[in-house]
Amino acid sequence: MCLMRQMVEAGEADALVAERVWQELAKGLMEKQPRRMFEILRECGALKVLLPEIDALFGIPQPAAHHPEIDYGLHTLMVLAARRRHEPRPARPLRRPAARPGQSPDPTRPPCPNTTATTLPALPRANGKPSLARAETRAGTG
């Protein structure tokens, strides 16, 4: 962790190529615990450089009516974890002729592969909330 912090402080995270960053983020989102990737990035300071919108969510309290015990950043990580927990199980082995290519083998359990397209939407759901929460606090409505 110390080496990672030193690299971020030296500005090496700023020099990373966007395509490579995306490849690593996509890989991390596909892991069993994508939340852990974001926790490590935040701990070493790289989240602020690579995904400042996500980093800005930490420390902004949720409204008391929703999740008063956590902030928006932790809530986003909880959504990522929940996304992985609620993934559909693999389809059961077929006992009938196989379906045609592109067709679900079991109509009651359509396939939902774990892809970045199904996991990535968990991240921006709170985007914009920090500025909204700050504005509500200033106005006395939050």
What attributes does this structure have?
single chain; 8 helices; mainly alpha; 142 residues
Mean pLDDT: 75
Main beta sheet: strand number and arrangement? none
Radius of gyration: 19 Å
User: What's the end-to-end separation, in Å?
Assistant: 36 Å
Structural class call reads: mainly alpha
Shape, principal axes of CA atoms: globular
- Helices, by number, come to 8
Strand percent estimate: under 5%
Poorly predicted regions: none
Say how many strands there are. 0
H/E series: HHHHHHHH
Helical amount: 40-55%
Outline of this structure?
With 142 residues, this protein is an all-alpha fold. The protein has eight helices and no strands. Helix 3 runs antiparallel to helix 6.
Question: What features would you describe in this structure?
Answer:
The chain is an all-alpha fold and 142 residues long. The chain is 49% helix and 0% strand. α3 runs antiparallel to α6 (72-85). It is globular, with a radius of gyration of 19 Å. The mean pLDDT is 75.
List strands and helices in order, with pairings.
Blueprint: H1 2-9, H2 18-29, H3 34-44, H4 46-50, H5 52-55, H6 72-85, H7 116-119, H8 129-139
